[in-house]
């Protein structure tokens, strides 16, 4: 089983954002473990809803930071955030409905998308902010 371990490669270089990414990765790991253990739908819903809530908070706080500092690629970044949130909400909808949609591929897709986002787009603003004295 592969878990999302927090390592240096995932660091974007802005402390508050790195802390939030760590919490998000922990929550995704918790969800993955819950799926592997065959936890009840209610338990899975609780973890996924918590993940969505925290992701929403994180995206908001990241977008505020980028806006305050005049980050040039903000529009593209926000659009990607919206897509990730929609994907999470779709997974939650299937889960709440209990319509039999297999969860593992959905969750794997979410994880991959999130890790790629941090690794590419978030690291891009990290370097940009560091160059302007924000860390
Ligand atoms: Fe982001
Ligand atoms: Fe982020």
What do you see in this structure?
The chain is mostly helical. It has one domain (13-130): Hemerythrin-like (Four Helix Bundle (Hemerythrin (Met), subunit A), Up-down Bundle), CATH 1.20.120. It is built from four helices and no strands. Helix 2 runs antiparallel to helix 3 (74-97). The radius of gyration is 15 Å and the shape is elongated. It starts with 14 loop residues before the first helix and ends in a 5-residue tail after the last helix. One fe (ii) ion binds at residues 62, 77, 81, 117, 121-122.
Features:
135 residues; mainly alpha; Four Helix Bundle (Hemerythrin (Met), subunit A); 0% strand; binds fe (ii) ion
Write the layout of secondary structure elements.
Elements: H1 15-37, H2 41-68, H3 74-97, H4 103-130
Helix pairs in contact: 1-2, 1-4, 2-3, 3-4
Report the count of strand segments.
Answer: 0
CATH topology: Four Helix Bundle (Hemerythrin (Met), subunit A)
Low-pLDDT ranges: none
Radius of gyration: 15 Å
Small ligands present: fe (ii) ion
Main sheet specs: none
Global morphology: elongated
> Structural class from helices and strands?
mainly alpha
| Domain module tally | 1
What is the ordering of alpha helices and beta strands? HHHH
CATH architecture name:
Up-down Bundle
The DSSP helix count reads 4
- Mean pLDDT comes to 91
Strand content: under 5%
| End-to-end CA span | 33 Å
Level-1 CATH class name? Mainly Alpha
The CATH H-level superfamily is Hemerythrin-like
């Amino acid at each position: 089983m592969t878990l999302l371990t927090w390592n240096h490669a995932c660091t974007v270089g802005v402390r508050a954002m790195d802390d939030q990414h760590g919490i998000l990765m922990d929550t995704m790991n918790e969800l993955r473990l819950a799926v592997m253990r065959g936890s009840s739908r209610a338990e899975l819903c609780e973890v996924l809803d918590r993940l969505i809530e925290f992701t929403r908070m994180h995206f908001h706080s990241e977008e505020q930071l980028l806006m305050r500092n005049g980050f040039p690629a903000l529009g593209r970044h926000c659009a990607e955030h919206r897509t990730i949130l929609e994907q999470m909400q779709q997974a939650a909808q299937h889960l709440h409905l209990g319509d039999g949609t297999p969860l593992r591929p959905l969750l794997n897709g979410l994880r991959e998308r999130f890790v790629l986002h941090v690794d590419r787009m978030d690291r891009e603003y990290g370097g940009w902010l560091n160059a302007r004295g924000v860390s």
